Amino acid sequence: MAQAARVRRKLFVLDTNVLMHDPSSLFRFEEHDIYIPMATLEELDHNKKGMSEVARNARQASRFLDEIVRTFDGRIEQGIPLSAHSHDSASGHLFLQTSALSSEIPATLPNSKVDNQILGVVLHLKGEQPKRQVTLVSKDINMRIKARALGIAAEDYFSDKVLEDTDLLYAGLRELPDRFWETHGKGIESWTEAGRTYYRVKGPLCASLLVNEFVYQESGKPFHAMVREVKGGTALFETVRDYTHQKNNIWGITARNREQNFALNVLMNPDIDFVTLVGQAGTGKTLLTLAAGLMQTLEHKLYSEIIMTRVTVPVGEDIGFLPGTEEEKMTPWMGALEDNLDVLNHTDEEAGDWGRAATQDLIRTRIKIKSLNFMRGRTFLNKYLIIDEAQNLTPKQMKTLITRAGPGTKVVCLGNISQIDTPYLTEGSSGLTYVVDRFKNWPHSGHVMLQRGERSRLADYAAETL
Question: Are residues 210 and 92 in the same domain?
């Protein structure tokens, strides 16, 4: 009976990059068994030095393995139960390679390469356990291609994926159906408070709405509102402030479309501590965020300063080490900040050159550029923290950054999930996708997916056709 149960369990052989991407992957295979080749342990040892995220993950994976092996009294070759180390989330066994394994891999694949040694181990296990499904798990596309060419089942590591299809990613806004008021207008309550109009509606659509989701209707009289509360089949709508009108401008900037207006509503709302803005290049993410930050820091005095950071992943070849202080080293990565500050500095036409120069000096004293490498252990009090290019962060890095927020701090994450430069990260496993999904129903968070580019007709056409 035990033999039959073991045959039903799959055996997953883990490539090193899976453990270095997610050390907790050891406990993500539920009832199935996992196998760690000696070559994987060697690579973990080789990558453990340094302060990078990869090195930290390699050390964490080694600690997990050490804890599992150290507390086991039996024979390692018979498998180590994982249930005691995974709070019963994994009921399979961990197998470690305890002896040299011989297998026939093509002569064209040199044995000196670690990837090929791992492929050799998988081939041996496949021949040794023919009735069992043996699968290689790797984040490396070429490794998976080689495995399939050798007749080995190979998969990507999916457990860290928040969504299989990013088209399903929460947009933060939805269009109400044409007959919404006919089906939800019975017993409607409406009142005005502090310049905002509120509507309490009942109907079948209400249960699927999320707190702080934007709803709109353009047919007839336009209706733009935010969902403030959902209780069973009842929802409370609050009309949004119109930031497209010049009288409500933010540091001289007005919203140019519906999504930008929604974005300014969450950015300017002091009750919302966490904001995510996702959109293609040129949709205005950085400009709107900076304008709202300057207004609330310099005019409303809600925050003491603006802190801006981003992942330093080069698009082309790296340009080597950079001289200077932390801020000076980060300056080449902050071109977007400089470009947007130029725009914001020219919004006041009446200030003149002297006035603009004075404002520019004041702005620069209130904006600090920080590197992600020195964020651990810090706590930000009453700060407006902007995380740019957030799609290049892993979920773990994102958690490290967001948990830096102390009392009175607002965190804004900006990014374009179709433009990921970090190896082994995909649209589904990006830290930005992760936080959008996890924060989507929290009353103090807001999210808007920006659609329309407002940079120039050239940029819009290039984004659509290239």
Answer: no
As a whole number of angstroms, the distance between CA 21 and CA 157 comes to: 9
Burial group, residue 31, by CB count within 10 angstroms (0-12, 13-18, 19+): middle
**Is there a contact between 368 and 328 (Cβ–Cβ < 8 Å)?**
no
160 domain-assigned: no
How far is 211 from 227, CA to CA, in rounded Å?
Answer: 5
**Contact between residue 366 and residue 386 where contact means Cβ atoms under 8 Å apart:** no
Shared domain for 198 and 150, answered yes or no, is: no
**What CA–CA distance (Å, rounded) separates 32 from 8?**
9
One-letter amino acid of 346? H
Predicted confidence (pLDDT) at residue 314 exceeds the cutoff of 90:
no
* Residues 234 and 284 both lie in one domain: no
The strand pair at 383-388 and 367-369 is best described as unpaired
Where b means 16+ CB within 10 Å and e means fewer, 304-315 reads ebbbbbbbbeee
Q: What predicted TM-score, i.e. pTM, was given to this entire model?
A: 0.74
Q: What's the pLDDT tens digit per position in 421-443?
A: 877 778 888 889 999 999 998 99
pLDDT of amino acid 315 = 38
On whether the CB atoms of residues 306 and 368 are closer than 8 A, the answer is yes
Residue 27 predicted with pLDDT over 80: yes
Question: Which structural domain range is residue 444 located in?
Answer: 252-465
- C-beta of residue 61 within 8 angstroms of C-beta of residue 19: yes
Dump pLDDT digits (tens) for 374-391: 676 788 899 999 998 899
